[in-house]
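User: I'm writing a short report section on ligand binding and want a predicted complex to refer to. Could you take this sequence and FE2/S2 (inorganic) cluster and write out the structure as tokens? A short remark afterwards would be nice.
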Amino acid sequence: MKKEIYTEIILDLYKNPVNRGKLEGADVEAQGGNPTCGDNVYFTMKIGEGKIQDIKFLGSGCAISTAAESLLTEMAKGKSVKHAKKISDEQLLGELGGIIQTRMKCALLGLNVLKKGLEAYEKSGGKKTVVKGIII
Ligand code: FES
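Assistant: Sure. The structure tokens for the complex follow:
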């Protein structure tokens, strides 16, 4: 059976993305993008007791990257930083309902930026962290 480029969940989240916006006074800011297509994403997170208490995203991107980033914020919210860092490509792709090979980079853009931000936060020992210009 031919795989559709846009699953229902991608179309839904692209039209009505959840957790879109910016958190003021965020503990972690992570921004990055894919210079080839120009798509980019900017996550802001509030961390408390080692967990991602809240997370939002902004950015401009294709339907697949936007939907994946939105879904990712739902997957990461409430998780410990350690746990969120371990969200795998397969988990996210599974939640998205399958992505064709040529669009993998779109689907994983946000996850890679998020992980770099969380890694930098852990390295800082839990200090306010801003990472910008991550190239994916
Ligand atoms: Fe750039 Fe999809 S075309 S992330």
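A remark for your report: The chain has a mean pLDDT of 95. The chain has one domain: 8-125.
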